[in-house]
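## tool: complex_structure
## caller: assistant
## args:
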Amino acid sequence: MPQTIRNPVEWLSDEIREVAKGVGEASRSLQRTSTHLRSPPLAINRIAVSDLKEVLVKGFDDFGAYRTDIIFLIVIYPIISLVIVTAAFHYEMIPLLFPLASGSVILGPFVGVFLYEMSRRRELNFARHHEDNHSWANALSVIRSRNFGTIILLGLILVAIYLVWLGAAWWLYRVINGPQPLYSVSRFVQDLFTTQAGWWLIGAGCALGLAFAALTLVITVVSFPLLLDREVGLATAIMTSIRAAAANPIPIAAWGIIVGGGLVIGAIPLFIGLVIVMPVLCHATWHLYRKLVPRQAPAPPPHHHRKAVAGALAAPSIDTLEAKTDEGQIVALVLTAVAAGSVLFHLVSPWWWTPIASNWNYIDHTITITFWITGFVFTAIVVFTAYCVWRFHHRPGVHAAYEPESKKTELWLTAGTTVGVAAMLAPGLIVWHQFITVPETASQIEVVGQQWQWSFRLPGKDGKLGAFDAQHITAENPLGVNPNDPNGQDDIVISAEDMHLPVDKPVKVLLRSIDVLHDFYVPEFRAKMDMIPGMVTYFWLTPTRTGTFEVLCAELCGGGHAYMRGRVVVDQQGDYQAWLGRQQTFAQSLPAQNKQAAK
Amino acid sequence: MVDISREAADLIPPAEVQDVDLYHPTSWWTKYVFCQDAKVIALQYSATALSIGLLALVLSWLMRLQLGFPGVFSFIDAEHYYQFITMHGMIMVIYLITAIFLGGFGNYLIPLMLGARDMVFPYVNMLSYWVYLLAVVVLVTSYFVPGGPTGAGWTLYPPQAILSGTAGRDWGIILMLVSLILFIIGFTMGGLNYVVTTLQARTRGMTLMRMPLTVWGIFTATVLALLAFPALFAACVMMLLDRVLGTSFFMPALVEMGEHLSYRGGSPILFQHLFWFFGHPEVYIVALPAFGIVSDLISTHARKNIFGYRMMVWAIVAIGALSFIVWAHHMYVSGMHPYFGFFFATSTLIIAIPTAIKVYNWVLTLWRGDIHLTIPMLFALGFIVTFVNGGLTGLFLGNVVVDVPLSDTMFVVAHFHMVMGVAPILVIFGAIYHWYPKITGRMLDEVQGKIHFWVTFVGAYAIYFPMHYLGLMGVPRRYYELGEMAFVPPSAATLNQFITIAALIVGAAQLLFVYNLITSVFRGKEAGSNPWRAASLEWQTPETPPGHGNWGKELPVVHRWAYDYSVPGAAEDFVPQNQPTVVRSA
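## result:
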């Protein structure tokens, strides 16, 4: 009999509905524990705050047993934090520094999985009266867990929460402070603590952070250990966690405070304390789970759960949880590593755009939006592919589903994609409109390219550039300015020298070439445009900071292309006027006989 | 998916012919050299394309050596470097990928997948290959003329392409243009064949909506090519006239190195429009066959029907149609009228939607499949990752204002290599591993294949992913050497060295592939007629490798689509297209 086929979107929505239903059921079942409409959810113990003490003691105990080896593993966590901190500096996104560092706690329960596994192995060996080798290698048996994929999936949910938190923090900062550029850390810290907006930011940020922390605590306090311990699905794990928190609101809240307080204390001595606090908390989490979920509870009958259809196997004992790593898992891991490596590279690589020196930070913003959207899509698709490979890798006797199409899914995916595309296109087109709309107040300059050097021309006192034509080009008149045009007489021609621009004044850059295609490109300005013989092209910009910037040619123009360099100097108004005063006009630069010919 | 009842099928008379009607070749020359059998022509096309591709691979090594270790290799000067990039780009895009997808896979697969005996115009088909070979020979000749090949960049933008500041101005550019003109002539002969064969020579029961997506991809790409190449043809002829006779189609009045030239009134931008009117569909000429083939690889090796077949077909057609109205997104900073930006950015981002649908349908095909991690499947997975990555960076470059800082930087280089270099080539590899058993009767070596895949996939990703960030930083493309650039930190040189080393390793892995390709003809494991247990028609031939005429005396009759995998209740997990009814399991 063919099974009904469901695609992931439908499956996901069903899962969500299932969780919601589960939560409702859970609250009902807490009142009437004897009657269950459907599968009995896992039983939950009520615990007292005083139990937390025992939990912590056991955590210390595990830590003591494993400690020499553990430190090695745990060092990774602080390193990641420090890496993230570096990234924040590098990005010049100082406001995100604190959200980045504090938010990494959201990922803690995921990283801690290795330690839960160590505690589980220790407990298991005690139960069997085995000698325990207390080796950190125990941590690696996580990979062999049948639930490994689900654990990764839950981990990815945490990553998503982390990213949402970063987005929310950034949004909050922008709402409260507006889009002003930042100059330094000290300036930021000063603003933070001395202005009203700064205090608002601290207050609202902490409240928001608390909400995220609470969410993470509630969905992970039991779920990760449960996934290691038993063959349950993701929905059951999260649902059980939520129910455990609902049944024990005060102890769980107290646990949250212990975790948060411990981490703060550990972080104060430059994160070094985390080397102790983190493992103890992780081990203790395992024992907290043991307190919250009784050991002998029957596993949920799988046929009551939709996810059983999607693949969870029948409830096995602890001993059968370890399956041989097969090729599917390796391929899935590599694919996941490619996605994770890409994201990590994006975050920590020192190669990023050069600091902007023009008004076109709108372009940078559009790029940032595009990075977020495309980064999300890329990660989602690759991780989904990896999950499919891991989950549906060939097993003897298992057949593929028969699923020709699903109009609903395709419609939803198409609609979602359209929205994403529109979200990138709309700001892009708005900024493009600004890019091609030159302000009335803009002054004009002309840039001329030829193999392989740059020349510039300013309109002079009359504000008008003289006409030009290729036929006027001579050794004395390299730009071909029409010597008979009165507008051109006071033009200022700058050959093979630096061009100067005044800061904060919009300027329309007219571009032309006298031989082949060139492209006027200053990376700090973000703008570029081809230069074409026989045509005049343009763009405009407002330089926003002083300095000397390199001009490159960005359109292949022959053998000397890479050597066609020039410089633009952005000056304060006074310096600019002084420089301008030193320049010769076109009329002055022409030899005497030409001037007479012109008359 | 069966719409002919068993009884009705029995009433159809068999399409039988006598051997004498098939005009089998009689001599060695007509069997192996001047052969009119599409399968032999396909192999000739593929062998030529792969050989010239090896030259392009070596050129890419030389380029990377210069970029990674500037100044170390003194035999590479600026002119050589620009000749390398020009020839590498042109060979890879036109003479390798286009030729192997359409001339190679098109010739081999279209008749077999459609149940035809051959292409409909075998003689013209043969001519197509020999003209292509002539084009390749003319191209290679440019290495042996004074001044060497052209260094104008593969886009050949005038005026510099035909002026003396550029390498190969004397002979190289002329030979390049002639070679392109020949290629287009040769392709047109082949292309007409592919289109007419697809429309006219399908066997009974093979409706258009039962064709494998491979055929849909190659067919649509061929239609695009037939419409797009004429623009390049015209551009090449005009530029040739500009260069040889001194006409001024693309040449305005200009002064070169202080000397007034006699050109007047031409437009360099006109060339760019013609070039990209061909050039953008060209991207999809390369991509659509890859889309089609990878769909079939995924479906076969995941033992599951392709998800959303009809949507996949319409997406291919929609992409093909849209690809003709997006060309100017290559020209956002060319100086064309700025208002074009609004239109072309919008059309470009719209094309992302059908493309995204294809990606979704590939991964949804994996979902709840029975995934066999064979080498073709690994390459298909590699394709998904690299194509999604390259496709998404396309959303940066297609969005006009975002393109302004990024265009002409290494970001563009990384983007197009990922999306139309690495991704389609991974599909070519996957396809060769997939169909090699049908072509030779033997399997390619699996261990070598796995090494080849992992080194190529991970290595190519390591080359191109970090390269985007060089471009983001502002490093321009087509720079012989970066030299001193204030905004580029010294660490960028380290990254360039890393990329070069990765490129050398990935290139070396391709030599392993060539070795595998050659030795497996003799030493490979016997494959049998249908080693992948595939449902499409080419695996149901009476002989492996298929003989001349493909089907023996009687043509197959098609009863279903090409994707009946894991049909509920069926005894086998695939039902061949020519099987009238599903055999139920006991």
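## assistant note: The first strand of chain A starts at residue 443 and ends at 450. Chain A touches chain B through 111 residues (CB under 8 Å). Handing back to user.
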